[in-house]
């Protein structure tokens, strides 16, 4: 029997209708039967049949056949009746209505991430939305429809939750990061992400996007509105070129754009600055009216916003603005919830609230209403077109109290700083202020920091992404400066003023774990702030997992310590041969268990290695110092659960050295003073789970971080962002009772 029936559009909604459905593999021929709907049953004498296109899909639950039909040459503004089957086994008859050729009034429903607990929690919301807007022209999904794009069970829950709704209300959707499936290379172990194969089987969307967009980027026109779907998970430059062309030839009065990752996040540190800088000027250029996003699992709706207008905010969250711009919305419909970070330009926000939005377009007016899962009005506004002027925004926010979490922080009596604490162990939790990610990022699990000593504001954070096979260079505002291809890069480290030929360079080193185990070397160009390869393809190392640089204070020689999963730690001396190329020579082997993270103290000649299941080993760093090490911090002590990863070293104003370690087993950061005792200070970064690479810098980095910062990898979400936290916030939290 046919199931998972869903209406979509691959063509013009006035004259076409697409239908997809699923059967088992026994169905050899699938058909769609349709007619113009009538008041009674006699339409069955006037039906037509159309053969379906069929394609199999192998899923984690087995093989299935997916069938699709796109009906053409339909009459506009007409109700049709249809069913699908194989000629013997049929679905029930259901209706669809073609769009009008005129800009007639209509409504549609928009929802953010359904994603988790779809059957148990999302069902009530989507059914409430249908009850409120049964004649909606379509239901728009802003990504993360499911949690695991390749899970057939997740897609089954998505259809179950809606019941008959997608059989009579067309679906418009764009993919989120959770529709990207992980693909692992069996030989190299490299993990990449691509749009799940379910997408093109389940849906039929227009194929008018950029080449290779796989129906994830498209546009369609519906009764005076141009609706544009973008894919914010990749190829954003290509989409920018395409979008400029699509909007330059737009005859519609209204323009609505949807994509997953917001450019005005509902939580500081999660903004997608690269998207904002690349796409928002195009929105401004063509006067886009409304942008609909998901991803942040809270609710936030802006005033009229143009590029960089967040830097000039009218006073008061209810202030009206006469400037031109676009209204941006982040919403969530499923039960997965994040923390909120309100900004002054946000007109209405919510935490721990499932919402759906009903949007009505009627001539020169666009009316927006957000409702909670029980149908309670929560937010509202009206946009009105004005000839030769920007849209007029009128707030219609209901009296419903804003739903935000109560303050859970305690006030420390000594520092008067509000401190959040983890309920399980009372470890202080500090909120980061910057989140580094970009559409290509997949697993940014290590980093290093380059400080511009002349202009600290120009400093950089360089992240190593083993799954994206890239190094990402960010500035201190989160803007992506450069992306460099490296096969499965590992740990990354940096040293300043290293001799190279007749110049002094800032050297960046990273171990490569695919296409041959190598050490890759780069010069950080101080003017362009970009990495320039100087390794001529890399230096062979043998099996490596991570590592760090070491520069001897005795003779100024340069080394790289490579860690490994099984073979201990190798010390490799780096030198320049007569041709001006770096070469590597192994000079010492250290017996230590499975280890990745390491850091060296150049001044004191010490090496610290994180053995994942043992603890922190300390070795003398000079090659002639022998192999004996000291286990100075053990798993099981100080609440350390194991799987130790990132290691960082810094000193305070009194020159007291501190070793900082990330404990993946407890998602906790431990700080060990390297003078007396073995007790650690502990803290956690909000939304930083199973942190791998870390870095801590205690100098001024200009206006953004005047007293330094702590940065760490987080496995909290698919892109594994780098989270950056001002150092004073951590110090104050550690000083609190």
Automatic annotation (TrEMBL):
Lineage top rank: taxon: Bacteria
GO molecular function per UniProt: acid phosphatase activity; inositol hexakisphosphate 3-phosphatase activity; metal ion binding
Domain BPP, chain residue ranges per copy: 421-734
Transmembrane annotation, as ranges: none
EC number: 3.1.3.8
Keywords: Hydrolase, Signal
Catalytic EC class: hydrolase
Keyword Magnesium appears in the UniProt entry: no
Protein name: Phytase
Organism listed in the record: Rhodopirellula maiorica SM1
Lineage: Bacteria, Pseudomonadati, Planctomycetota, Planctomycetia, Pirellulales
């Amino acid at each position: 029997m046919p199931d998972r029936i869903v209406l979509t559009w691959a063509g013009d909604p006035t004259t076409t209708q697409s239908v997809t459905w699923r059967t088992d593999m026994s169905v050899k021929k699938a058909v769609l039967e349709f007619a113009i709907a009538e008041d009674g049953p006699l339409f069955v004498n006037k039906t037509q049949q159309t053969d379906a296109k069929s394609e199999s899909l192998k899923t984690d639950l087995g093989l299935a056949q997916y069938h699709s039909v796109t009906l053409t040459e339909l009459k506009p503004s007409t109700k049709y009746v249809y069913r699908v089957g194989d000629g013997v086994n049929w679905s029930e008859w259901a209706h669809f209505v073609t769009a009008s050729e005129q800009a007639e009034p209509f409504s549609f429903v928009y929802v953010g991430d359904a994603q988790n607990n779809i059957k148990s929690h999302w069902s009530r919301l989507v059914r409430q939305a249908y009850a409120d807007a049964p004649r909606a022209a379509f239901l728009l999904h802003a990504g993360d429809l499911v949690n695991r794009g390749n899970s057939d069970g997740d897609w089954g829950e998505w259809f179950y939750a809606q019941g008959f709704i997608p059989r009579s209300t067309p679906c418009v959707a764009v993919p989120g990061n959770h529709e990207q499936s992980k693909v692992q290379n069996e030989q190299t172990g490299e993990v990449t992400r691509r749009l799940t194969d379910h997408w093109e089987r389940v849906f039929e969307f227009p194929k008018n996007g950029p080449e290779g967009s796989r129906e994830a980027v498209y546009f369609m026109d519906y009764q005076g509105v141009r609706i544009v779907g973008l894919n914010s998970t990749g190829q954003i430059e290509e989409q920018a070129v395409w979008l400029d062309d699509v909007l330059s030839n737009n005859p519609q009065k209204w323009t609505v754009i949807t994509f997953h990752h917001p450019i005005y996040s509902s939580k500081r540190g999660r903004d997608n600055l690269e998207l904002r800088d690349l796409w928002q000027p195009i929105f401004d250029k063509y006067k886009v009216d409304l942008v609909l996003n998901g991803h942040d699992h809270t609710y936030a709706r802006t005033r009229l916003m143009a590029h960089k207008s967040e830097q000039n905010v009218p006073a008061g969250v209810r202030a009206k603005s006469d400037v031109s711009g676009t209204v941006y919305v982040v919403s969530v419909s499923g039960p997965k919830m994040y923390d909120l970070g309100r900004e002054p330009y946000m007109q209405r926000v919510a935490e721990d609230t499932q919402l759906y939005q009903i949007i009505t377009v009627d001539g020169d007016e666009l009316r927006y209403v957000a409702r909670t899962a029980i149908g309670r009005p929560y937010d509202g506004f009206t946009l009105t077109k004005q000839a030769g002027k920007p849209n007029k925004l009128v707030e219609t926010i209901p009296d419903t109290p804003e739903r935000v979490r109560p303050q859970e922080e305690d006030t420390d009596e000594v520092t008067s700083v509000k401190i959040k604490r983890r309920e399980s162990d009372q470890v202080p939790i500090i909120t980061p202020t910057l989140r580094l990610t970009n559409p290509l990022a997949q697993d940014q699990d290590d980093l290093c920091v380059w400080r511009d000593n002349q202009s600290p504001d120009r400093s950089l954070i360089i992240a190593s992404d083993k799954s994206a096979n890239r190094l990402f260079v960010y500035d201190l505002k989160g803007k992506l400066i450069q992306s460099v291809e490296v096969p499965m890069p590992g740990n990354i480290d940096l040293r300043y003023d290293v001799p190279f030929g007749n110049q002094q360079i800032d050297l960046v080193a990273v171990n490569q774990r695919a296409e041959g185990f190598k050490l890759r070397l780069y010069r950080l160009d101080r003017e362009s702030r970009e990495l320039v390869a100087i390794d001529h393809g890399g230096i062979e190392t043998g099996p490596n997992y991570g590592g760090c640089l070491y520069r001897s204070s005795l003779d100024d020689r340069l080394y790289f310590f490579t860690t490994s999963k099984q073979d201990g730690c190798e010390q490799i001396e780096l030198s320049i041969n007569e041709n001006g190329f770096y070469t590597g020579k192994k000079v010492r082997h250290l017996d230590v268990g499975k280890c990745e993270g390491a850091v060296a103290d150049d001044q004191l000649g010490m090496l610290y290695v994180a053995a994942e299941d043992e603890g922190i080993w300390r070795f003398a760093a000079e090659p002639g110092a022998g192999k004996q090490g000291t286990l100075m911090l053990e798993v099981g002590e100080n609440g350390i659960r194991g799987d130790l990863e990132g290691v960082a070293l810094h000193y305070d104003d009194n020159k007291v050295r501190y070793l900082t370690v990330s404990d993946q087993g407890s998602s906790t950061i431990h700080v060990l003073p390297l003078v007396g005792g073995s007790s650690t200070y502990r803290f956690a970064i909000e939304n930083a789970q199973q942190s791998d690479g870390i870095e801590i810098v205690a100098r001024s980095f200009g206006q953004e971080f005047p007293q330094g910062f702590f940065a760490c990898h987080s496995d909290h979400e698919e892109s594994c962002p780098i989270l950056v936290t001002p150092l004073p916030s951590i110090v104050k939290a550690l000083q609190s009772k």
